[in-house]
Amino acid sequence: MRESAAERHDRLLGLVRERGSARVSDLAGLLGVSPVTVRRDVEELAGRGLLDRVHGSVSWPRERGGPAAAPAGGSGGVVLGMLAPSATYYFAEVVRGAHEAAARAGARLVLRISDYRPEEDQARTEGLLAAGAEGLLVAPGWRRPGDPAAYGDWIASLPVPTVLLERRPPAGSALDGIDRVCSDHRHGVLLAVRHLRELGHGAPLLMARDDSPTALAVRSGYAQALGVLGLRAPREVIDSVPAEVSPDRFEAAVQALRAAVASGAATAALVHNDVDAIQVAQRLAELGVRVPRDLALVAYDDEVAALADTPLTAVAPPKREVGRQAAGLLLERLGQARGGDGPEPRRHLALLPQLRVRASCGAAAV
């Protein structure tokens, strides 16, 4: 399968973090891509504050921790380990929030990336423990419904306080009994569907991926939202894939959406995620379907939705606050352990997304 830009970004970040700094030309050889591609990637990552760039080289920002960085709390500071499936797109903000909370507490955050390979999560987490992590923030690289059962049992037996991030394990499982902090994606979908209904639309069509816990939660939340609002889906969910991974399947998804609009079956759509939504809107325009005149469009994630030609209304999960709250909860658990106090009840924190209204749904921005 062709490597996505997000996966390449994570490999690039991993190489720079390991080395502290690297020349762009060297990174091109290590990644197996052209220097032009690396320069474009570096420009994007530097713009998001994930890398520092100087005269043909890049370095890991000192404030984010790494080989060239001193621990935020000095040599005696608490060390928090964080396992994330990615350091770009959605999880960049989660990582940033966790780092901010750790830094405020004088703690050091050490990050490892799984590249959405759940079979490698345990080994990477053991590496965090070997690096001195006294507590763990864990966002497993699960992608499919069966992944928690296949690659999750080990988390419940970790020897240090652990908080799950943006992951909801099956009810009744061993992982269901540990601390977690998540975005309430079902609530986010309900906000979008209710907003479109209030604008006079029937049930929106859902176009969504199925390759991440967020995508699966959006799908589940869509069915729940329709039930709560007494609506019926205009047709089955349209399966989406990244255009760069499978152009043919992406085109088929867009054509299915176009056909639904042309037949009058749907006047609104919710698309997960932002990148797909922007590409969908671009392709629909080429096919004569204009947003929002012919189709009200809402994106899910709000990473880059505001940058579309027609700024996209989007559901915005509280990603940075998830990181902050999770790190804060972990630090609290570590404080309790050191103080010898008895254990408090475990917590499942569900933070509510917001709906950011822009031009793509045909309503006035708020």
Automatic annotation (TrEMBL):
DNA-binding in keyword set: yes
InterPro entries (alphabetical): DeoR_HTH, LacI/GalR-like_sensor, Peripla_BP_I, Tscrpt_reg_HTH_DeoR_CS, WH-like_DNA-bd_sf, WH_DNA-bd_sf
SUPFAM superfamilies linked to this entry: Periplasmic binding protein-like I, Winged helix' DNA-binding domain
Keyword DNA-binding recorded: yes
Pfam families assigned to the protein according to its UniProt record, in alphabetical order: HTH_DeoR, Peripla_BP_3
Alphabetically ordered keywords of this record: DNA-binding, Transcription, Transcription regulation
Stored SMART domains: HTH_DEOR (SM00420)
HTH deoR-type domain span: 5-60
Protein name: LacI family transcriptional regulator
Taxonomic lineage: Bacteria, Bacillati, Actinomycetota, Actinomycetes, Kitasatosporales
Gene: lacI
